[in-house]
Specification:
about 140 residues, about 25% helix, archaeoglobus fulgidus dsm 4304 fold, globular, alpha/beta, 6 strands, six-stranded mixed sheet
Length: about 140
């Protein structure tokens, strides 16, 4: 599947009780941010994504592999989305878990789509921040 330069991409990363969702138009325009935090229990990433106010705008979802490790919810999400899903392991696309998407034009300074790169930066800042003490990714 080809990818237009300014296609809206949602990047997702997180941990057991936090999920960061960033929407970008291509690799150049930051358009939105959502952060879901659960202080009582583990977050359900599928529910959080499906409840996102930006999901209707996204034409591609790029997610961190670590967010789905040990869960079967990735297939559940794929069935319910209706948009291509790309799973990234560090800087590489996990070919076995990902839909075929051309990421050219969605990356600016690395092999990671900008939406996911920024989501990772935000997650790291949240975890390191003293504003959210005790929060672990």
């Amino acid at each position: 599947m080809s990818s237009k330069r300014e296609r809206r991409v949602m990047g997702l990363t997180g941990g057991k009780n936090i999920l960061v969702k960033v929407i970008y138009r291509g690799a150049l325009w930051f358009e939105g941010l959502e952060v879901d935090v659960s202080t009582n229990s583990k977050l359900d990433p599928v529910k959080s994504i499906l409840d996102s106010k930006y999901l209707g705008q996204a034409r591609v979802l790029v997610v961190d592999y670590d967010l789905w490790q040990g869960t079967s919810s990735l297939e559940n999400l794929r069935e319910r989305l209706g948009v291509p899903l790309v799973v990234m392991r560090d800087e590489e696309v996990d070919e076995a878990l990902s839909d075929k998407v051309n990421l050219k034009g969605l990356c600016s300074c690395s092999n990671i789509p900008e939406a996911l790169r920024v989501a990772r930066l935000i997650l790291n800042e949240i975890i390191e921040s003293s504003l959210v003490k005790g929060l672990q990714g």
